[in-house]
Please model this.
Amino acid sequence: MTHPIHSLALRRGELALYKGQPVEIEAVFGFDIVQVRDLVTGGRLEVEISHLSRRDTEVDSTTDQTGFKPTDEWREIAEFRLEVIKPLLNSRNRTRADVEARASEFNYRPNALYKWIAAYEGDGTLSSLGRKQRSDARKTTFDARTEDLISSAFKELKPKDKQFTEIYQTIKDKIAAANAQEKANNKDSCCDGSVPGNFKPMEIPSAGTVRNRFLAIPRRQKYSRLHGARSAEHMFDPILGSFPGANCPLDVVQIDHTLLDIMLVDEKHRKPIKRPWLTLTFDVCSRMVTGIYSSIDPPGAMSTGLCIAHSILPKEEWLSGFGSDAQWPVWGKMTALHGDNAFRMKMLKVACKDHKIDLIWRPVKNPKFGGHIERWCGTLAQAVHSLPGTTFSNPKERGTYDSEAKAIFPPTEFNQWLIERIAAYHAEEHSQLGMSPLDRYRLGIFDGTDKHPAVGLQPRIQDPRDRTRLQLDFMPFEERTVQRYGIEIDKIFYYHDVLRRWINAPDPDSPKLKRLFRFRRFYAHLNSVWFYDPDLDDYFEIPTRDSTFPDMSIWDLKQIRCEARATKLPNSQIDEEYLKQRYLRMREQEEASAKKTKAARSKSERHRMWDASPKPQVAPAVQDESDFDSDTIEPYVRVRGFSEMPETATKLRELHEMASEALYWDNSARIRRVWDLKTQWIPYTRAKFLIRKAKELLNRPKAPRLPCLLVYADPNSGKTALLRRYGELHPIDPNLGGDAIRAPVIGIEIRSPDEGALYDSILKAIQAPFKIQDRVQKKRNQILTILENIGTRQLLLDELNTAISGPLLKQRNFLGALKNLLNELQMTVFATGTPDARIALALDQQLESRFEMEELRRWTYGEEFRELLESFECRLPLREPSELQAPIYAKRIHELTEGYIGKSLSFSCALP
Model:
């Protein structure tokens, strides 16, 4: 299950969470650093944006306590309100006169517009502007005859009927005529010519009622009836001459597919397979590439959706997955998306409408309007032509060059090259801009120009659940009714109990028809679909009814159906069992012939990539800033001219080896190395003592109810760094000669007091296969079996204090599940957290009695604190000493940082 999307607004005064603590953003220093103020302690600190999270609200933004359902009529009202306030949104120079003028234009009171602006800027979703339904909403008080006459009058609107009074008069005339006709018919049926006593004429509705029904008609449909189809096109279709409004970053983003001129090889045999497709998005203003999706599969709705989601989401975690430390600070929703006719797909129209992204279609026979992105694709093609295995742009240019024989790049390595090429392009000067795309992007975000003020950082989607929701919103979907057996898509049946309440549900607009629901599919994995529940405004994963059904892709399915048609197999004989058996035979044939033919290798490589591609799921939380690998150092280029530095050479003995190496770099590189210090482990006496104590627990023989250790401290005290260092000292042993890995120590982060989330975190930590929708008991049994086999003896728990969040019953269940795991596996625990962690353990006295509590106190001013500052300085690449340990400096640093090691380290890095 996911939840509605929320994003973190990155501007001064916004509230957020940092390490679970409420903070207020005070200043934005760039794409990655902000200054925040702790709302509990009042302290100020600089943190990375990626480590902030949005503060959750008490009430869900889309479902109220009355059971509100977002209907099409509701969406029409919300969209109209958004159109009214759109020119006033996110405007720093908005005045009351502007609001009053806009309110007067649409005949509203200014207070109503202020209310809508506050709601939309606070939530950022369409649901904030919708009107909640009353309990009697959509229930008519008229009989069926009156309703039919009103509906027929609306359907018979003519271009001349442009005044509402004329429409209302037409309805009154129709009802009066119908009453007169029925009265005459009743007279004829009576022998004496009188009107029967049970005759009841139709009521004439009030003008207000008819007006409300009229306003509920979709605007384009109504406008087309009253003013003609051509006028509706001019009114509602976008007009594209150039790019009006593409003056700021993400105002207009172009999207396109391109087939790259290079032959790839498969990962297993390193033999040629085929050329890759690249889908990319491109910011017209800054010329930044905002998102990409590369695949050997043909492009379509799936690649389009994944590329747009990649464009909107932050990219740090994705880049680290490819082992890249490139800078790609682009995130946020674009104002308008511009594409050619290949992107006229229903999925894209629905998703962009839901996320308030304007769609601009390239005019027919006007390719010049896509020139920005096409020129960059040409630039990329030139770079690709220099790689081994290039096919060049045509056979004449290729000549006798054997592309397949020279090919060396598998898809993963080619993606790594592509990332580095994009990063290099972002840093190169652009001939038309007169600066690099990254500098132009930075200018539009932070500084602005004479004509256009800075727009600031876009709201950033931080929560993994929000990222999942966004990806699902941009996935292709099918519409189906829910039957007693579930649903059927392409001969595959799906069912889950979440569908039970929607079986044979009627359409709310046409009760005689069954209601259609949206089911989104991830084309690489067809063993489940994602059901959108319109009442909850949320997604649920629905598995296949047959749990043994293989995880085939949509391209496998199409090939099987195509082969069945070729053999003239009747459609009635194609069922789930046929698909399953044919798929298994097809995979066996592909594996057997993978070395022989390029087509078979291509299919085999596709399956490898599909198996490796993750389904939409809740991703792991962002790590604490002290959790990064301290051995990851960016390979800077040394600068000539610093080889002879006799006065500095005499000081090399006093510096840490990493700092002494950096002395010969240029200033910008040395400054960046200063900030790298925050990721290094700096040992001190108290930390060594605690690590030694945890190791003693690890070395204890297995026994019931082993003792455990909790280290608690205030934020910025180095708790997570301590736990991280301990984990590095006890890595997982691959045990290549044995049957399984050896993992005596496993570390996880506690995100909520949820038993299922605890099991999910453990399974992810050991990289065990599992499904999110699996029962809790199944996951627990899996953990007991695996941890016993790999020899796990100690569990590392970070942020144990989060166990006090949520209902009391969930907290008790969580602690009970943890205690049972420790009992059955006879493990010990090394945990860290804020002082609230002690409160969490107090809920279970048996568990609390096992823990020894150790506080990581703030540093007091004295000789040890000065030695700590000296250890900081010896790791800084300084050509002259700063003397941080001198009493005059050390005492002031202690006063400013309050003795917190994290603050002291950040301050020391900023001071030189």
User: Anything to note?
Assistant: The first helix runs from residue 72 to 85.
